Amino acid sequence: MAPDWAFVALGSNLGERERYLRHGREALAALPDTELVAASRIEETAPLGPPAQGSFLNQMVLLRTGLSARALLAACAAIEHDAHRDRTVRWGPRTLDLDIVRFGDERSDDPALTLPHPQLDRRSFWQRELKELEPHAR
């Protein structure tokens, strides 16, 4: 299988947020048959969702990967778990959140992996981060 471009969003609003983003970047870069090509600037944003919580640090990375989208999704879940991500509250605070925003030209309506990410058009910070990274995918 030829490698695909994957845009993965990282977010953290608990604990040492910058350290969690760094952990996410390093873990993604260490995945088999995967290269971290570029990373956007880090920006702070207000939380989305109903629970009261602190601000997020957000960043997006561009990967070139031979993994399938589903294998990358499973790897993201494992990386979040390693960062002690607690999934007890939907949209709640988190140490590390990894979302596949786009994966090559792949489209999927599967609830487990919707591509492009269903919130892409609603998150202006993702739009800015994509714009920053897209030139590196050429």
Task: Compile the SSE list and pairings.
Elements: E1 4-12, H1 17-29, E2 34-39, E3 43-45, E4 56-65, H2 69-82, E5 97-103, E6 108-110, E7 113-115, H3 124-133
Antiparallel strand pairs: 1-4, 1-5, 2-4, 3-4, 6-7
Helix pairs in contact: 1-2
Can you describe what's shown?
It is globular and about 45 Å long. Helix 1 (17-29) runs antiparallel to helix 2 (69-82). The relative contact order is 0.25. It is of the alpha+beta class and 138 residues long. A hairpin with a 2-residue loop joins strand 6 (108-110) and strand 7 (113-115). It has one domain (4-137): Alpha-Beta Plaits, CATH 3.30.70. It contains 3 helices and 7 strands, in the order βαβββαβββα. The longest helix has 14 residues, at 69-82.
